[in-house]
């Protein structure tokens, strides 16, 4: 997956370098084109309801991740400090009282949940200032829980997309639809709703039997409590009632919030399924070809394919690519469009050293970045390598796309050609998942075939893991490392980069 190296006459070297620089700038500007909205195709009958991870590990209150542990810790700290403070100013709080400590805990709960019955009211400046402080502190805790819920929704949407993409590597389109029809989210809504109804009944029963309220008034009190209205005309007045309220108010309000979270998630599930269907069924156009063809050679390699897919999946953005592209151009001393050992040696003998004095790109990096194992690192391979180092993509994304590439590579040539696409379209009863337009869009090095790395970049871009600016920055970095302008990084490129770094370091010391 590399460019062919051509001989350059010494007298024409400056002219060719200027031409390559101009061509590279034009290519980078053209790569900013984006797919049209009309290029997306959907299937109306697809249903995605099961999250990719184990359901027991996703819900906000089912796994004690570090974020939730902090909430629990802050809640305990809030109740402890609040109980102590309100106990010390208990004589400055008016209303019906039972036990000093119990009343303090009870007042903390109704303050944090913003229920505020009004049965206990601060009547001094000190107690009122404390109440104001604990009201806002309680709202901070509630806001943290809401933030955690929002993160959960975003993570679930991304997980649905990744899971659906990986299912396509294992099953056919029909099997995917069957696999993704399990509606566990709807069942979670039902379970939470029944728990909420149970808490309503328990609260009503307790108010009727212990607080001696009429049934209708007890139900009215429960509704105003769970929804945090807290009108205050009737509330828990006995010691037993307030002890029950400490646990019941907190549990019921949290359960209601959890129920609303699942309802919002269920409504958002339609858009999530639409996003998954877009990734599964989208047809590639000539606009995609221009966007994915980083080196403007008319074909898209596997690494280019990865970058393209990462952009479409939203894993990286333009700023990420710009920085990597700048680094690549610095390493690509021979402006071959690839990084080789000679490029790395040249880069290391010039100024390509980090603040600690070590090379920014070494031979070990060259080996790790060589996705297709051809001994050179192309532009797209360099992009994928840097994005992985930046934690923009993970190994799971790369593995899933690589499996899809192997399924399309019928002749096992480690490249995708028109014949491979023709065979895929003949054997597929549904809409082809990879067409000739995709082949053109994924062929980064313009050699007429799509290697594994090019395919990987292309799919990752379609999945919004990366965007155009991400690719631009990595392209610039790649061009700097590719000293021999072969369109790939080889050991000679790395050697040249290292020699350049050492030479620059020696000159600096002198």
What does this structure look like?
The chain has 510 residues and is an all-alpha fold. The protein has two domains: 55-280, Helix Hairpins; 285-509, no CATH class. The protein is built from 20 helices and six strands. The chain has helices spanning 13-30, 66-88, 100-112, 125-170, 173-179, 184-209, 215-226, 239-281, 286-292, 302-312, 318-331, 341-348, 363-369, 379-389, 395-408, 418-427, 436-442, 452-462, 468-479, 491-509; strands at 93-95, 120-122, 338-339, 377-378, 415-416, 450-451. The strands form three sheets. It has a two-stranded antiparallel ribbon with strand order 1-2. The chain has a two-stranded antiparallel sheet with strand order 3-4. It has a two-stranded antiparallel sheet with strand order 5-6. Helix 3 packs parallel to helix 8 (239-281), helix 6 runs antiparallel to helix 8 (239-281) and helix 11 crosses helix 14. It is elongated. The two termini are 41 Å apart. Mean pLDDT is 68; it is low at 1-65, 169-182 and 351-357.
In short:
63% of the residues lie in helices and 3% in strands. It has 20 helices and 6 strands. The two termini are 41 Å apart.
Report the principal-axis shape: elongated
Order of helix and strand elements from N to C terminus: HHEHEHHHHHHHHEHHEHHEHHEHHH
CATH class of the largest domain: Mainly Alpha
Query: Which runs of at least 5 residues are low in confidence (pLDDT < 50)?
Result: 1-65, 169-182, 351-357
N- to C-terminal separation? 41 Å
> How many helical stretches?
20
Structural class: mainly alpha
Q: Assign the CATH topology of the largest domain.
A: Helix Hairpins
């Amino acid at each position: 997956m590399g460019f062919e190296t051509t001989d350059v006459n010494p007298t024409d070297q400056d002219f060719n370098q200027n031409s390559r620089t101009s061509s590279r700038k034009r290519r980078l500007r053209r790569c900013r084109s984006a797919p049209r909205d009309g290029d997306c195709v959907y299937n109306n009958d697809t249903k995605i309801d099961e999250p990719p991870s184990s359901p027991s590990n996703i819900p906000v209150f089912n796994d004690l991740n570090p974020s939730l542990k902090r909430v629990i810790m802050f809640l305990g700290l809030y109740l402890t400090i609040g109980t102590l403070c309100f106990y010390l100013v208990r004589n400055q709080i008016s209303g019906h009282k039972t036990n000093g400590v119990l009343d303090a805990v009870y007042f903390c709960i109704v303050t944090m949940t913003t229920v505020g019955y009004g049965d206990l009211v601060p009547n001094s400046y000190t107690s009122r200032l404390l109440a104001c402080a604990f009201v806002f502190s309680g709202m901070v805790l509630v806001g943290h829980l809401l933030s955690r819920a929002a993160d959960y929704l975003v993570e679930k949407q991304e997980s649905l997309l990744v899971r659906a993409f990986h299912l396509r590597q294992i099953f056919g389109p029909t099997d995917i639809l069957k696999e993704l029809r399990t509606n566990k989210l709807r069942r979670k809504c039902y379970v939470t709703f029944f728990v909420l109804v149970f808490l309503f009944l328990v609260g009503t029963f307790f108010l009727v039997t212990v607080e001696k309220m009429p049934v209708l008034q007890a139900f009215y009190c429960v509704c105003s409590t769970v929804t945090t209205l807290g009108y205050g005309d009737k509330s828990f007045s006995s010691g037993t009632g307030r002890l029950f309220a400490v646990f019941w108010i907190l549990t019921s309000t949290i359960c209601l919030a959890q129920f609303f979270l699942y309802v919002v998630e269920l409504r958002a599930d339609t858009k999530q399924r639409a996003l998954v269907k877009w990734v599964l069924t989208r047809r590639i156009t000539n606009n995609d070809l221009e966007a994915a063809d980083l080196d403007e050679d008319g074909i898209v390699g596997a690494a280019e394919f990865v970058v393209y897919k990462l952009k479409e999946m939203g894993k990286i953005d333009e700023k990420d690519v710009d920085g990597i592209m700048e680094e690549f151009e610095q390493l690509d001393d021979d402006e071959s469009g690839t990084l080789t050992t000679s490029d790395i040696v040249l880069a290391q003998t010039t100024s390509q050293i980090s603040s600690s004095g070590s090379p920014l790109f070494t031979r070990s990096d060259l080996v790790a970045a060589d996705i297709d194992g051809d001994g050179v690192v192309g532009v797209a391979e360099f992009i994928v390598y840097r994005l992985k180092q930046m934690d923009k993509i993970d190994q799971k994304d790369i593995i899933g796309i690589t499996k899809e590439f192997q399924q399309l590579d019928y002749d096992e040539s480690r490249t995708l050609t028109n014949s491979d696409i023709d065979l895929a379209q003949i054997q597929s009863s549904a809409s082809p998942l990879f067409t000739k337009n995709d082949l053109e869009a994924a062929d980064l090095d313009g050699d007429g075939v799509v290697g594994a790395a090019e395919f990987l970049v292309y799919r990752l871009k379609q999945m919004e893991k990366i965007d155009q600016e991400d690719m631009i920055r990595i392209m610039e970095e790649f061009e700097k490392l590719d000293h021999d302008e072969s369109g790939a990084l080889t050991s000679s490129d790395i050697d040249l980069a290292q020699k350049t770094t050492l030479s620059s370091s020696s000159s600096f010391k002198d």
